[in-house]
């Protein structure tokens, strides 16, 4: 399985491509950061991110895309900017019919380090170790994207089984209407 991890950001958008399967060695294919000028208008910055992600999708042909799910209590502006970059990544994947999954940073940290509260340095060190790299991936946004891809590779089978079980547990539409009518 080849996965493109996206650590969204308006100024720096981390990208990482990892090949692997659960229980097998992982291989980094590429890691990097898309940068946009802070003084450019939002439309231009999003267009630069879209073009960059499209280039990565063309070059690396991933089978899935995983995007960091955002959470913040305090800095709404940062969350909005990051959410816009995230939406661009989702749109690029959807345009190609690629499945998109989201993981929170704490899910990724727990999957990669064993602790949902791990710091960036610890995540970077574990990413380097898991991918058998000589040095920590730089900048941290690239390491975050690789960690997202690793997390997805390790969790994809379990998520698929959970989704299938959930779909199988849903009553058929006619049965659901009948059930609703019986409750009234």
Radius of gyration: 18 Å
Helix vs. strand class: alpha/beta
Quote the average pLDDT. 88
Order of helices and strands: EEEHEHEHHHH
Based on the coordinates given, report the CATH architecture. 2-Layer Sandwich
The residue ranges in which pLDDT falls below 50 over 5 or more consecutive positions are none
Give the beta-strand count: 5
CATH superfamily: Ribonuclease H-like superfamily/Ribonuclease H
CA(first)-CA(last) distance: 48 Å
Shape: globular
Looking across the biggest beta sheet, what order are the strands in?
3-2-1-4-5
Largest sheet: 5 strands, mixed
Percentage beta strand: 15-25%
Protein name: Crossover junction endodeoxyribonuclease RuvC
Family: Belongs to the RuvC family.
Binding site for Mg(2+) 1: 141
Cofactor: Mg(2+)
Word description of this protein:
The chain is of the alpha/beta class and 184 residues long. It has a single domain (2-183), classed as Ribonuclease H-like superfamily/Ribonuclease H (Nucleotidyltransferase, domain 5, 2-Layer Sandwich). The chain contains 6 helices and 5 strands. The protein has helices at residues 42-60, 76-95, 105-113, 120-130, 140-169, 173-183; strands at residues 2-7, 12-19, 27-35, 64-69, 100-104. Helix 3 (105-113) packs across helix 5 (140-169) and helix 4 packs across helix 5 (140-169). It is globular. The termini are far apart. 34% of the residues are buried. The mean pLDDT is 88. It catalyses: Endonucleolytic cleavage at a junction such as a reciprocal single-stranded crossover between two homologous DNA duplexes (Holliday junction). Its cofactor is Mg(2+). Belongs to the RuvC family.
